[in-house]
């Protein structure tokens, strides 16, 4: 197979293999917070908790709204994050991490939020 995911030399013809879709593109049906996330959330200042709640409201409408700063996290040797995770900005000083799972009962996409904290803690958690 040629670079770029194409078979043969055709341009857009039947030989072309479409690129793999982005795994988290589009909307998720709902969000849920892990126990660890909730524990970390409860320790945050009230204003940061309000910002995180506003993040969820915006995320529910458009997970890729530029205001959210939604980023894919890549595997690192020192990182503790789940493979396939993404992070969003809660504020200039805080980030939250989630991955998308599929509900076994109805097949809906569910954002599973499992970490929230300061940028310093975030960098340590993801192994930067």
Task: Write a concise synopsis of the structure shown.
The protein is an alpha+beta fold and about 130 residues long. The chain has three helices and five strands. It has helices spanning about 35-40, 45-60, 120-125; strands at about 30-35, 70, 85-90, 95-100, 110-120.
CATH architecture: 2-Layer Sandwich
Shape descriptor reads globular
**Count of separate structural domains:** 1
Question: What percentage of residues falls in helices of 4 or more residues?
Answer: 25-40%
One letter per element, helices H and strands E, the order comes to: EHHEEEEH
- What would the CATH topology be? YaeB-like fold
Q: What composes the largest sheet? A: 5 strands, mixed
Derived structural class: alpha+beta
Arithmetic mean of pLDDT: 82
Give the tally of β-strands: 5
The named CATH superfamily: RelE-like
Strand content: 15-25%
CATH class: Alpha Beta
Commentary on this structure:
- This protein is of the alpha+beta class and 128 residues long.
- The protein has three helices and five strands; from the N terminus they run E-H-H-E-E-E-E-H.
- The protein has helices spanning 35-42, 46-61, 119-126, and strands at 30-33, 71-72, 86-89, 94-102, 109-118.
- The chain is globular.
- The two termini are 34 Å apart.
- The relative contact order is 0.19.
How would you summarize the topology of this molecule?
Blueprint: E1 30-33, H1 35-42, H2 46-61, E2 71-72, E3 86-89, E4 94-102, E5 109-118, H3 119-126
Parallel strand pairs: 1-5
Antiparallel strand pairs: 2-3, 3-4, 4-5
Q: Which features does this protein show?
A:
3 helices, 128 residues, 5-stranded mixed β-sheet, disordered N terminus, alpha+beta, 25% helix, globular
């Amino acid at each position: 197979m040629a670079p770029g995911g194409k078979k043969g030399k055709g341009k857009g013809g039947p030989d072309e293999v479409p690129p793999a879709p982005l795994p988290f593109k589009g909307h998720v049906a709902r969000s849920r917070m892990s126990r660890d996330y909730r524990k970390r959330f409860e320790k945050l200042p009230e204003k940061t908790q309000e910002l995180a709640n506003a993040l969820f409201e915006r995320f529910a409408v458009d997970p890729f709204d530029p205001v959210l700063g939604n980023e894919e996290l890549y595997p690192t040797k020192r990182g503790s994050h789940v493979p396939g995770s993404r992070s969003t900005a809660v504020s200039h000083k805080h980030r939250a991490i989630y991955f998308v799972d599929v509900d076994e009962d109805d097949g809906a996409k569910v954002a599973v939020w499992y970490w929230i904290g300061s940028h310093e803690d975030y960098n340590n958690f993801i192994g930067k």
